[in-house]
Each structure stands twice: as structure tokens, then as C-alpha cells.
Amino acid sequence: MSGQDISINGPDGSFSGYLSIPASGSGPGVVVIQEIFGVNKVMRDIADGLAAQGYVALCPDLFWRIEPGIQLTDQSQEEWQKAFDLFGKFDVDAGVKDIDATIAHLRGLDGCSGKIGAVGYCLGGLLAYLTAARTSADASVGFYGVNIQEKLDESKNITQPLMLHVAAKDQFVPPEAQQAVKDGLASNNHVTIHTYDDNDHAFARVGGEHYDKAAADLANQRTSDFFKAHLG
After folding, report:
1. What separation in angstroms does the CA of 221 have from each of 73, 151, 224, 230?
2. Domain ranges in the chain?
3. What is the CATH number of domain 2-231?
4. For residue 159, which of 142, 135, 186, 124 has the smallest C-alpha distance?
5. Of 103, 156, 168, 208, most Cβ neighbours within 10 A?
6. In the prediction, which pLDDT does 218 show?
7. Does the active-site annotation cover 217?
8. Alpha-carbon gap, residue 208 to 190, rounded angstroms
9. Is the pLDDT of residue 1 over 90?
10. For residue 2, pLDDT beyond 90
11. pLDDT of residue 163
12. Catalytic residue among 48, 170, 200, 212
């Protein structure tokens, strides 16, 4: 397994991404979609973990239009404020275009099988949902996605498998929003939703305030099984 920063050509310019390749040198691709903290150690570790499972993992810098190369942590109030500022300025539609370009880049790599998954967290959870609706990804997973309830009109475009992990006590996604998402997606048999009753937002972020190892392990195992089923 080896990781490196690379350049990805998108419709509006080139941007960086962290690429992690499995020891075998080949496998299905997975786009890792960042939280509001940029392509930081948490995202890089997730990409490396996927590479250890045999995937060619690529985490694109989706904040490049605002400020390239952002790597924040969740450990200080100053960094949280910076992260929320970036989130407020972020263009979701442009971000999905960048994810689409990242998918194309992965498919073009010699070591990639051509099958592509996507997994996103927080902001990336919303983007994973939109990736399922707007791109050619073969399977997508969203962890505690925010504002999905505002994009439910796009659910009719989801024709490949999508798994959503929902934190029942998510401080950024109130119960009525969670219910709207469940109701809005109930008729789409490509969508699977798992709810974690006792967990808050970012329960799978290692080192985070709300990290819950048991819930994270369960969600990660479900994601692993899901990718094995659909990307093999």
C-alpha cells in the first residue's frame, strides 16, 4: 500500500487528491469524499484503510476553489470556525462535478478495475447521495449526510446501490429531516438506510468528540460488505 498526492483534471481546472494504492497494485476504485475539514489525516487514513482492503482509493480536494490544500482537525474552536466558513462558501454542484472528474480519473488508472464506489462523511455524506444521483458511480455510501432532505427530488435518478448511515441523535440533522429522508427514499429499492439510535453526528470519525467504536465498526463493516457485493 502506498499513498501520494496527485493532480486531477476537472471541468474548471486541476485540483489535488490523495491517492492510496493497494499492495497488489490494482483493484476497484473508491472515491473518498471529505468532511468540512479538507483532505486531512482522517480522510487520508480512510483512503489508506480502503487500500489495505484492496481498493484504489482517491480523496479529492473539493475546497480547492476556495482555498487549496486545506487540512484542518476538529480539535480547536478556531479550526471549527474555519471549517464552517469553508462549508458556507462551498458550491455543492461544483463539488459533484469534481467528484465526477475524480471518478473518470480513477477509471483511467491502469490499476483500476473500472468499478467505482464512493464513500463520504458529513458534507461528504450529502455529496455521496448526489454522487449516486448524478454520476456513473457503481455504489455509494453516505455517513451522516447533511441536508439530504433538501435534495430528495433527485432520488428518482438513483439507479445504482446507495447505503446511508444515519445518526439518530445527529445535532446537524434533526429528527424531522431524518424522517423526510427515510420517507422520500422508501420507494427506491436501490437505497438501504441504517440508523444508529444512540449516536450523534460523526460517530465514525476516529478521535472525534462523538466517536463510538462499536457503531463505527458496525457501519464500516456494513460498508465493506456493501462494496464487496457491488464492486467485486
Report:
1. 25, 27, 5, 14
2. 2-231
3. 3.40.50.1820
4. 135
5. 103
6. 98
7. no
8. 31
9. no
10. no
11. 98
12. 170
